[in-house]
Amino acid sequence: MIEVNGITKKYGRKKVLDGVSFTAEKGEITCLIGINGAGKTTIMNAIMSMTPIKGGSILMDGDEIGKDSYEKITFIPDAITMLPQMSIADAMQFMKDFYKGWNEKRADELLSFFRLKQEDRISSLSKGNRAKANLLLGLALDVDYLLMDEPFSGIDLFSREQIAEVFASHLVEDRGVLITTHEINDIEHLIDKVVMLDDGKVLTEFRTEEMREEEGKSVVDVMREVYQ
Ligand SMILES: Nc1ncnc2c1ncn2[C@@H]1O[C@H](COP(=O)(O)OP(=O)(O)OP(=O)(O)O)[C@@H](O)[C@H]1O
């Protein structure tokens, strides 16, 4: 489990995270929802130790996050970080050379699942295929937790559906997924837990099934109540 306990972050005098706490369990998809500037990316960066936090703590499976955590977690940013002149095959080879946890079998499976061609250059890919290649590179790593920043951002309906399908498949298996998204409609049925943020604070945190069964509300219903 990833436990975020009361983290605080300031940029200059501006408090961008103000005592944020939530948990993300293994085997579940947890979704961070919030309007632009709510603090979603800053939380992801804090979990990956890419930005220092001022107060609070972040634990993974009971231990404070540190350099050993990188064996267990990966961050898939909203844009592919590979050089444009690389082919998908080059990018996969790069990952294989640099990451112990590269799972070649899963990478090949993802390649055919997304119908990507190894020989295609990153620069020649459509936005949707670039997002899929980006996901492939992260999902093929044998880690327990996957952090994904806006995997659906700016891509067409069919690509979004295909990406959503991967979340429901064995390719994610029993790993813990923490995702930020605005495109809640495509994955609402797949999400186990929602954390709604505004202005650096958690407004509400709930399990989607409980919300549906006990209050008869969808995630979008709760979003309307909370943000409007
Ligand atoms: N390097 C930085 N320097 C100063 N302020 C920053 C920096 N990075 C982020 N911020 C501010 O921190 C706040 C939270 O930003 P963050 O990117 O985490 O939000 P977000 O919820 O991910 O937004 P978006 O949906 O637009 O990606 C915003 O007000 C942003 O302007």
UniProtKB/TrEMBL annotation:
It comes from the Bacteria. Residues 2-224 form the ABC transporter domain. Keywords: ATP-binding, Nucleotide-binding, Transport. PROSITE patterns: ABC_TRANSPORTER_1, ABC_TRANSPORTER_2. This is ABC transporter ATP-binding protein. InterPro entries: AAA+_ATPase, ABC_transporter-like_ATP-bd, ABC_transporter-like_CS, ABC_Transporter_VariousFunc, P-loop_NTPase. One of its GO terms (molecular function) is ATP binding. PANTHER family: ABC TRANSPORTER ATP-BINDING PROTEIN ALBC-RELATED. It comes from Virgibacillus sediminis.
